Amino acid sequence: MTTTFAPEVASRTEGLYERVSHIVTEVEWRLYAPYIAAILDLKERRNAQILAHHYQTPEIYHCVADVVGDSLALAQTAAASEADVLVMCGVHFMAETAKLLNPEKIVLLPSLEAGCSLAESITAADVRGLRERHPGVPVVTYVNTSADVKAESDVCCTSANAVRVVESLGVPRVIFLPDEYLAHYVATKTSVEIISWKGHCEVHERFTARDIASIREGHPGTTVLAHPECPPDVLQAADFVGSTTAMIGYVAEQRPSSVAMVTECSMSDNVAARFPEIAFVRPCNLCPHMKRITLPGIQATLENLSPRIEIPQQIAARARRAVERMVAIGRA
User: Fold this and answer.
1) Chain mean pLDDT for the chain
2) Which DSSP symbol is given to 276?
């Protein structure tokens, strides 16, 4: 690394560039390093913990985050955190989940515009309508939903534990919301009847089986990993289907020479930084909401302790029960 920084920046960021040098250029690092140094200082001053989803960019994921993971891992960490301040580098529903599990803590989201197409596909009124049409059938709600929707649910789940949560209820039928493709995937893994909703993730729904065929044609021998939010024909064409954490586990254990992760763009970047010897084919669909989280935004959030996530108590108490049930199942 040939770039010269001010002494305080150089000291604060020493050794960090090596974590991302495989995927971040020196020119980019010149821009990132001063922000990273400032964020690391602010974390100490605020007794803050930064939680980052796998879809965050490498300079956030590898250089300022204290905890990285999928929705379940971040929820579990948030529940056990001893920090005074939690900064969610993810999207709005993730910050809400952290607040539900830590009502006494300050929970910050660097951009309130970091939403989720899937979360916006369903409302609390929709859930009440489904309950009326299917009386007595429990509602399992994907964590990618608003607190209002969680409050109308019996238990939450993530893509990592969806099948486990469904089967834990010991019932013949469940209402599974809101991702139609994840519901279809769960239905192939259990004898429980799944009543689904037609919500989709704008990142994963754009992938096609033709994309998989193109990868195989252009990069023979590549192992294709797909997220269960993708359409069924994509999952059928893939070599492995699993959550973001399951994909990382597969790469770590199997060490394929070439791999394609059919999910959000930054996921491949973050995993490639850990495994520079593996060739990553990037069928990239970008999440515009995840990319609203930036280093300058994180710095400003820690400086100002805003924007803060707040949830009305009457909603929070009911939503918290659904999330806590999910966390308990995940730990069992």
Assistant:
1) 94
2) T
